Amino acid sequence: xxxxxxxxxxxxxxxxKPRCGLCGKTKNLVKTECCDNWICDDEQKYVLFxxxxxxxxxxxxxxxxxxxxxxxxxxxxxxxCQICKESFQTEMYVWSGTNEYNFxxxxxxxxxxxxxxxxxxxxxxxxxxxxxxxxxxxxxxICTEIELDD
Length: 150
Ligand SMILES: [Zn+2]
Ligand SMILES: [Zn+2]
Ligand SMILES: [Zn+2]
Ligand SMILES: [Zn+2]
What we know:
alpha+beta, 2 domains, two-stranded antiparallel ribbon, 6 helices, 29% helix, 11% strand, binds zinc ion
């Protein structure tokens, strides 16, 4: 193949062009209000009620502690924020602080027990949705459907 002898053509893309810290795109970027990182200015692409998670901007604002912390106007850094910690179940707190929509992830996320279906005992992944809850009980998607069919 035609290997170019010229160096540093591909090696420093980071500095010269700002790119979205989540997906790497270089077009239509804005800085996030919460943490001053470059991100796709793509929120208008989001279709209301579609629940699509294809907007970097929206994902960061809605599904991360950083975005939540900023929206709620908490003081200090989200990483040390006690209010954030208490606002979520530990499982969701950890997910929000470590998911792919974060620029910076929670360094030592707290441990938690997985959430289990109160009926069949299957593990429920809260961040994926599809479950239902009643008081302290959680029901997986399948058990929820069975309930509804009765
Ligand atoms: Zn992006
Ligand atoms: Zn942020
Ligand atoms: Zn907070
Ligand atoms: Zn179940």
